[in-house]
């Protein structure tokens, strides 16, 4: 009996070890075992959570529902951030800017008599997940390393709050800071906006909105980390790469993308949502739009370097397809600059920009398209592509990866170099 038990234990351990070992990573990926262990832990929790939801609701959740519930559970493990952390020069507090919930980070000892620069941070999560509590380590770290004021914006989330709720909150909070900068001892001429993923989307929208408001000082810098900037071309080279590559990172972000889009535009996330399937198939825009000068110019796959298109990439030979009815019903949202900042006609008034992209990220080409638009408009831009990185690779908190730490070092140093300059 003991022998059978021992053999059974070894069998279970062997299966578990094989499960961890099977996690694919690209050649040369640093810290592969750390990645495998982290992803295995997350996927195990996710699987148990899915089984719990299936039993509780008498139906299994779709990918979006499961992801939101998983994030909710993980968020319960994040305590309300303390005002102060031992060894840190940063003190934080909750506040509201124009009715928008924010957390403000300020140095306890400023070291300078003149007003400090500041940055505004917009968190990722597809405009449907994430929180300023979860991102507290990120914003505190940036504020600490730069010795400046930070503001994390707790914008409203989909599907409870649809377009343009998140964008309006982001713009409102930023305008409030710029118009009340003196009260906070902040220099309104030295304010940066930072965001990751959907937060990068909001940062780009905010930069444009402030640039168009002659009554306000311009944003000094924008820092876009693996940003989502459009939902009109779902067949970019980076998306094709994700569809034919086994390495995606821990989250099925490409599969979640249509849910994020419909959640924010319609407040609709049902698994039987035909709109989501149309988006995933790149059939959500009309043939006429795909053939238009705007589409062909702004989503020109030739802008993506040839060596970043892997063997499975196929150039579209025909643009004669699309769903006219769906396009007509949602065109006003999807073509709005608030929803698709890549469609802004004049980029020349936008601020100096840092864009980070990852080689294993379906959003990589959004960043590339945006970088090329900025260059063409004469805007100073620095683009860093971390080829072995994946979407939302850990760059802050207790568990980080070398690639994520490198990205953080790069954009923090970029801010340090240019935020103080004239």
Inertia-based shape: globular
Provide the gyration radius in Å.
Answer: 22 Å
Task: Please state roughly what percent of the residues sit in beta strands, choosing from under 5%, 5-15%, 15-25%, 25-35%, 35-45% or over 45%.
Answer: 15-25%
What is the H/E string? HHHEEEHEHEHEHHHHHHEHEH
Number of DSSP helical runs = 14
| Low-confidence spans | 7-18
Helix content: 40-55%
Biggest sheet architecture:
8 strands, mixed
Total strands: the figure is: 8
Mean pLDDT across residues: 91
Strand order of the largest sheet: 1-2-4-3-5-6-7-8
Structural class comes to: alpha/beta
Roughly how many Å apart are the termini? Answer: 78 Å
What's the topology here?
Blueprint: H1 2-22, H2 32-57, H3 63-76, E1 90-97, E2 100-107, E3 116-122, H4 136-146, E4 149-154, H5 165-179, E5 186-196, H6 198-211, E6 221-225, H7 237-243, H8 253-266, H9 274-280, H10 287-290, H11 293-298, H12 324-334, E7 352-360, H13 364-376, E8 381-390, H14 402-418
Parallel strand pairs: 3-4, 3-5, 5-6, 6-7, 7-8
Antiparallel strand pairs: 1-2, 2-4
Helix pairs in contact: 1-2, 2-3, 5-6, 8-9
């Amino acid at each position: 009996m003991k022998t059978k038990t021992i053999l059974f234990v070894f069998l279970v351990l062997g299966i578990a070890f094989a499960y961890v070992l099977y996690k694919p990573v690209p050649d040369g990926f640093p810290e592969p075992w750390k990645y495998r262990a982290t992803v295995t832990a997350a996927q195990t929790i996710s699987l148990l959570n899915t089984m719990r939801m299936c039993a509780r609701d008498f139906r299994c959740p779709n990918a979006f529902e499961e992801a939101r519930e998983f994030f909710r559970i993980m968020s319960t493990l994040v305590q309300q951030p303390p005002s102060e952390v031992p060894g840190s020069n940063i003190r934080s507090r909750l506040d509201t800017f124009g009715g928008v919930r924010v957390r403000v980070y300020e140095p306890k000892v400023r070291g300078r008599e003149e007003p400090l620069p500041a940055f505004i941070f917009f968190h990722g999560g597809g405009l449907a997940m994430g929180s300023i509590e979860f991102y507290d380590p990120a914003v505190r770290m940036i504020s600490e390393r730069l010795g400046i004021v930070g503001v994390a914006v707790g914008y409203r989330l989909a599907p409870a709050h649809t377009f343009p709720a998140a964008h309006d909150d982001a713009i409102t909070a930023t305008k409030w800071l710029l118009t009340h900068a003196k009260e906070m001892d902040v220099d309104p001429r030295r304010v940066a906006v930072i965001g990751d993923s959907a937060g990068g989307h909001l940062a780009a929208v905010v930069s444009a909105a402030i640039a168009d408001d002659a009554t306000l000082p311009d944003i000094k810098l924008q820092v876009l980390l693996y940003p989502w900037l459009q939902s009109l071309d779902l067949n970019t080279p980076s998306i094709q790469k994700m569809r034919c590559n086994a390495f995606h990172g821990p989250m099925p972000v490409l599969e979640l993308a249509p849910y994020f889009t419909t959640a924010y535009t319609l407040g609709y996330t049902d698994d039987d949502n035909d709109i989501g399937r149309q988006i995933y198939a790149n059939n959500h825009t009309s043939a006429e739009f795909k053939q238009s000068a705007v589409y062909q110019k702004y989503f020109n796959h030739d802008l993506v370097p040839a060596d970043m298109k892997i063997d499975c990439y196929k150039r579209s030979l025909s643009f004669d397809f699309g769903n006219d009815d769906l396009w007509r019903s949602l065109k006003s949202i999807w073509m709005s600059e608030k929803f698709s900042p890549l469609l802004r006609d004049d980029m020349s008034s936008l601020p100096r920009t840092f864009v980070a992209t990852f080689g294993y990220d379906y959003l990589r080409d959004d960043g590339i398209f945006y970088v090329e638009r900025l260059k063409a408009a004469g805007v100073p831009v620095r683009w860093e592509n971390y080829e072995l990185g994946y979407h939302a690779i850990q760059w802050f908190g207790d568990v980080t990866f070398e690639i994520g730490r490198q990205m953080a070092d790069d954009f923090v140093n970029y801010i340090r170099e240019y935020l103080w300059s004239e």
